[in-house]
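Re: your question about Serum amyloid A protein

S., sorry for the slow reply, the queue was backed up all week. Below is exactly what I fed in.
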Amino acid sequence: MKLLIEGIALFLIVETNARWINFPIEAIQGGHDMWRAYSDMREANTIGADKYFHAKGNADAASRGEGGKWAAEVISNGREWVQEKMGHGAEDSAADQRANEHGRNGGDPNVFRPAGLPPCSSESHED
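Result:
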């Protein structure tokens, strides 16, 4: 019985550590997802599409795992903090954060996609 309990404890410790080993990799991949969403937004250059790209970047990053979700939150909060300090409107920042959270929490980014937004170049070759 003691051996069984020790085996279970060892399994839980190893499994927990294995997940945390992936955290930095997921965070880097999530940062890349956020950059890709920003690049796609710049490429699209479509008025009213920013909330879609906020949600898409956060959703893609969060889909990587806890590290990606963390990266998306840090990047999104940092961006909104900078925007606020530069004098951008509080209402727009709050709407951006709602889109960020929607994507990060598994919501469909397409609810923010404006009509007529063409597919971005990265959408044709998702990784």
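DSSP finds four helices and no strands in the chain. The CA atoms of residues 48 and 114 lie 7 Å apart.

Happy to talk it through on Thursday.
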